[in-house]
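Need tokens for this chain, all 413 residues.
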Amino acid sequence: MRKWVELTAIYLIFGTVTLGADAVTLKGKVTDLNGRPIEHATVMVYHAGVKTGYSTFCPSCYADCGKRTLTDANGTYTFTHLNPDLWFELFVFSDGYGPVSVKKVDPSIGPATAVLSPRSSVEDPRQMVRGRVVDSSGNLLRDVVVEPQGVASELGALIGTVPGLDLLVVTNDKGEFEVHYEGSASKMLLLVEGRNTAPKFIVMPTGTERRTVSLYEGAVIRGRLMAHGKPVGGAEIGLIARERGGLGSDLNMVGNPYGELKVGTQSDGSFAITNVPAPVEWYVYAKMKSMAGRGATEPVTCATSVDRQVVDVGDIQVKPGNRLKGQIVLSDGKTVPNGMEIVITSDRAWDTQTASLGQDGRFEFGDLSAGSYSISPAVRGYTLPGTAENVAVSIDHDLDSRKIVLKPAGSTP
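Here are the structure tokens for all 413 residues:
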């Protein structure tokens, strides 16, 4: 317990430090679809991140996160004393309207406008889910974002952006929320995420009963990134579940559908990823883009078991990576159009590299750790033979002559 408290305190202290010079002011406006101002709309700073480099704290751990204000009669809002080195994600909501998220707002660029759409009312119990969100101590949590992920409808399971389903809702001062769907459903899949808590997927039956959702702080995964005995700062660490998630026909979850968590390394190479769900097995790795020219890391496996657990993965070693060079060949003999790209994706880490293709189709990837990858060429008007969407490749040494043939789209194999 002491270990958890000490680590949490350290990162919360760092998170409240002003990173740069003078504070800045952010102004903006909230309107309806017709451009009319909306008075008394709530505008909240939900997430933040650094403008340059990689954020060394969770998106909701910065001191400015959690600030909120109301719009005036002209629909305008103002935040003062914001950190000038950060961008911000705002959530905007008002009674009678669907909330919206305004991402990557930079106060130095100018005002940020949010446009709210009217929210349709529903009366059929099969069109709604009602809930309340509490923390591990039973305290009601306001400003928790509830993002619907799918519904079990008469047409079967509908996943993703479902027409007629709320895109997101936010809990009120009583911790309450209500999700609407224009159709009829038996249950809904929700992603519930509060500040400084681990995200949680939950399937809730439709109806008027208000059900309680409990959120927990989650675990911490920490370690150091090292190369030849020296710390590697300014890199980005990724975290993804080993058994990635999927959904069955009845919204039953298979594996772990959590998105990738990312955090930057400090100057001493250390990192701490907070609010990690448990129990889950994970891969931890240095992101390829942040390691360009510096080497590669093998994904490290670890597991979170219980809430408030601190998992120390120790030193993640940077080693020389492998090279993959090759050529895209078009079966009709034409040259590759300008601006085309090719992507390589790790089968273990949630990580990719993108390379530009020359007109001769040549490409090169560097700093690849040993492992299995998928290569996806993106050449306008051409596809891989058959029904393949990518090319599998196993890398444990430099490969300098990989050739991939593409055929014109629509042609026979």
